[in-house]
Amino acid sequence: MGRMIRLLVLFVLMLPPTFSQTKGNSIPRASNGKPDLTGVWQGGSERPGSWDEANTGLGVGGTGRDPSAPAAPSSNDRPAGREGAPYQPWAAQKVLESFNRRGIDDPTALCLPSGIPRIVMLGLFPQQIIQTPQQVVMLYEYMNVFRVIPLNAKHPDDLIPAYMGNSVGHWEGDTLVVDVIGFNDKTWLSGTGTLHSDSLHITERFTRVSKDRINYQVTMEDPKVFTKPWVLNSSLMLREGTRLQEYVCAENNLDPGYYEKLLKDGVKITR
Amino acid sequence: MAHSISRAVTLAAGVAALATILLAHHSFGAEYDSTKPVTLTGVITKVEWTNPHSYFFLDVKDAKGNVANWKLEGYPPSVLSRTGWKKDVTMKTGDTVTVFGWHARDGTNWAHSREVTFADGKKLFFGPPAGTGDGGNSPAVDVK
After folding, report:
1. Domain boundaries, chain A
2. CA neighbor of B37 nearest in space, from B129, B121, B117
3. B82: helix, coil or strand?
4. Residues of B with Cβ-Cβ distance to A226 under 8 angstroms
5. CA A188, A192, A198 angle in degrees (round to 5)?
6. Is-contact A208 A238, C-beta < 8 A?
7. What does the DSSP assignment read for A87-126?
8. Which residues of chain B lie closer than 8 angstroms to A92, CB-CB?
9. Residue B80's closest chain A neighbor by CA?
């Protein structure tokens, strides 16, 4: 009986996919045949659906309709199961010190750009990808920053150290590979205190695996702070109907003043 | 209507358990104490839809009839607008609301706002959960 069931399961698995399955798993393609990454996306989430559907409950910006729904992880947080970042001992100590200060030295508290990959992996704000055969443009609502990524091009020779670095891309099969150098050392990578040097070299791999999802893998190399490359995997989820909005962080940024006041008043804020 | 202030201490454990971390502009934990939840009912005196955080101000009357003005911090305008809020409509000066959040570490009339309950019973989140942005439960590096 058990053998018959196994055979039946095998038979079903061997059946060709139905039209709806094919349709559901197909990915949009550009006129040149490459996967089309164009769209508005949310990082740090694995929940499909519209922004509203995917962010209920305790999720990012949740509306409270479903309090049992899981929350999306933060790019400041270390998700359960993630390996420790491979920092050299001196750098690991600095990461720990920042954690114990509860991240009051976060560059974004000063309204500075989040850098990469932090801004790709955060979930509170959407990001938009616009793809052409010659270049891919990535727009981020958070801090209103952008990346213009020429395809099959070399990095310029006259790079000025930058928060978002300098990106060039190419296709490897159905995966967009983006090479990023030219960073300054003023951003965090992924998590509180995750410093890097201006030697940071990032390789990102964007693979649209379904209509709803891009798999995102990022490899961070920085021989000045790491003992080996730091590799993280995340995802971007399609948020149809969402539009990017303005985010002018400097408008009313009270946090540095709060931190200063709390420290001046001797209020304990460290762990 | 009697305006009251009460500490929702009994909620602390449950809230702490649910306080999965989200990214916000800054560290929650540096400014607010997740062990000090607070529930306030009062009358809105001002609403500021600003980046990187929005604020509203609430006149809260204690049992003796003394009124204190509280400052509540929350999401920026883009997040509010994506999660059911309409500027100058959802919450206006003169409205009576109840807000659940966490007290600032300095003990002044200042809090991080999470859930707002309106007069008709409708609830919306004005800000993220406790713990937002201060690093989570463990640092990015393994501590030996």
Report:
1. 39-264
2. B129
3. helix
4. none
5. 20
6. no
7. B-HHHHHHHHHHHHTTTTT-GGGGT----TTHHHH--SS-
8. 141
9. A61
Q: Six-digit token pair at A7?
A: 């055979």
Question: Residue A171 has which token pair?
Answer: 């296709």
A113 within 8 A of A29, measured Cβ to Cβ: no
How many CA atoms within 13 Å lie on the side-chain side of A170?
6
Is A240 a residue whose pLDDT tops 50?
yes
Q: pLDDT at residue B1 above 50? A: no
CA angle B56, B59, B65 (to 5 degrees): 165
A76 and B76 in contact by Cβ < 8 A?
no
Task: Evaluate whether ipTM surpasses 0.90.
Answer: no
Angstrom distance (rounded) from CA B132 to CA B134: 6
Domains of chain B by residue range = 5-125
Across the interface, of B30, B77, B132, the residue whose CB is closest to A74 is B132
Give the pTM.
Answer: 0.86
Domain B5-125 has CATH 2.40.50.140: yes
A130 forms beta bridges with: A137
**Which residue do the tokens 């053998």 mark?**
A3
